[in-house]
Amino acid sequence: MAEHTIKAFDEEIDRLRGLIAEMGGRAEAAIENAMLALQRQDQRLAAEVVADDKRIDALEAEVEKLVVQIIALRAPMANDLRDVIAALKIVSVVERIGDYAKNIAKRVPLIAANQHKLEPVSLLPSMGQVAGEMVQDALNAFAARDAELALAVVERDQVVDDFYDSVFRTLVTYMVENPKTISECAHLLFIAKNIERIGDHATNVAEMVYYAATGQTLPERERGGTQQQEN
Amino acid sequence: MTEEQQSLAIANPKMTARDVKVFYGEKQAIKGVSIDVDMDHVTAFIGPSGCGKSTFLRTLNRMNDTVASARVEGQITLDGEDIYAPSMDVVQLRARVGMVFQKPNPFPKSIYENIAYGPRIHGLAAGKADMDVIVEKSLRRAGLWDEVKDRLNDSGTALSGGQQQRLCIGRAIAVEPEVILMDEPCSALDPIATAKIEELIHELRGRYGIVIVTHNMQQAARVSQRTAFFHLGELVEYGVTSDIFTNPRQERTKDYITGRYG
């Protein structure tokens, strides 16, 4: 894309993109580390995830400030306008994603404290990986203004939803058979739900990216699996 | 599936331009422009200097007639009547399609006379009482009455720039035009005076067809419902203003309004 006649405007947009890329990278790392901590029952890593969330929150505040400044001083138009509005919305969603990762990490000590070996845990890392990749791709799509990649993220949400349904059924069955594990299984259910929400949020980011890149909004999707589950 | 762009349909065009071409001698300044103007929408013309937006505006009330080398092709109608037809009375046309210029240009006469001059030469007032009514009504519509009602005999040139420009709008209104063309009406005004003119444009919409040429894109975004982007004599893109400024279709439009042009 051609550069702005006013160079400082380009610098601000670049800075905005840099901050969002950094925020996305941190959110993705938070998900990955939270899942790793869960798998390895690594409480120190879990505590790091919780502590690092502050940095994500700080990045959100920084982006909000920059967006307000750009709108006030540059009066962005067309794709520039869509970019900064999308940026503003994206960071609040990524902040939520960070919170979910933090929530997962906070549950690690509660599960590790128990001596039971929990079989259903085996599905969660793959589920977390897909959700983490969705976050990564959604933010890469923003950086590259790539509508196709954003669409692919939206479509992948179904995979996470299917994972969730599967984990839900497995855990319920497991709890019925091993009532002593109900407390741990409940934590695992919340973790699965958190990952499922991360997938939904990554999808929301992808929808905003699609709008920013094309000026068109995606039609409302049907969220299949989880809604049936909740009924 | 994608969202449709908002409808551009102009149901009752006041003026229509079809494949309008303007030449200055050998040089073609306007390359086949078609556009409709109605009473319900303010139309803004934007584009870089020399893009043809002012030239095109001036074809709408034949201001280009005064330029010896200018030649206009294509068709422009007002209420379905060809304004370039030999039978068209140009003086009458310019009363029906009024114009406000970049620099306020009140006559060096009293405020009252500035407004009364047009109605008098067009024979719109039967007597002094009639004229008083026209002057008050025009100044009220121009949003100037309250500021000048106690000094109607002061010179129009003694007013501030913003007031002078509203006086010029009142002068255009006084002859009961159907369309008002504004060629950068705020470029010589400060932001407050500009805001007053913009508010006035908003109030005049519906009563008159309004076409405004502006260098200030924010102004086009604020006052118009239709925006036309001109570049090198072409009408590059014409659309609903909110679409043009959030999601322009043409690369050249986007580059211009986002400040990437040239």
UniProtKB/TrEMBL annotation, chain A:
Describe, as the record does, how this protein assembles with itself and its partners. Homodimer.
User: Which Pfam families does its entry note?
Assistant: PhoU
What functional role does this protein have? Answer: Plays a role in the regulation of phosphate uptake.
Family recorded in the similarity comment: Belongs to the PhoU family.
Q: Which InterPro entries match?
A: PhoU, PhoU-like_sf, PhoU_dom
Which parts of the sequence belong to the PhoU domain? 20-108, 125-209
Known PANTHER family for this protein? Answer: PHOSPHATE-SPECIFIC TRANSPORT SYSTEM ACCESSORY PROTEIN PHOU
User: What's this protein's name?
Assistant: Phosphate-specific transport system accessory protein PhoU
Q: Which residues cross the membrane?
A: none
Its subcellular locations are:
Cytoplasm
Give the originating organism.
Sphingobium scionense
Biological process (GO) annotations? Answer: intracellular phosphate ion homeostasis; negative regulation of phosphate metabolic process; phosphate ion transport
Matches recorded under Gene3D superfamilies: Phosphate transport system protein phou homolog 2, domain 2 (1.20.58.220)
Record's keyword terms, sorted: Cytoplasm, Phosphate transport, Transport
Q: Name one GO cellular component term.
A: cytoplasm
Keyword Transport among record annotations: yes
What is the protein's major site of localization? cytoplasm
TrEMBL record, chain B:
Q: Which residues form the ABC transporter domain?
A: 15-257
Q: Does the keyword Aminoacyl-tRNA synthetase apply?
A: no
Pfam families named in the record: ABC_tran
Q: Which domain of life is it from?
A: Bacteria
Q: Which UniProt keywords apply?
A: ATP-binding, Nucleotide-binding, Phosphate transport, Transport
Under CDD domains, the record lists: ABC_PstB_phosphate_transporter
Show the GO MF annotations. Answer: ATP binding; ATP hydrolysis activity; phosphate transmembrane transporter activity
Swiss-Prot/TrEMBL GO biological process terms: phosphate ion transmembrane transport
- State the GO CC annotations: membrane
| PANTHER family listed in its UniProt record | ABC TRANSPORTER I FAMILY MEMBER 17
Q: What is this protein called?
A: Phosphate transport system ATP-binding protein
Originating organism: Sphingobium scionense
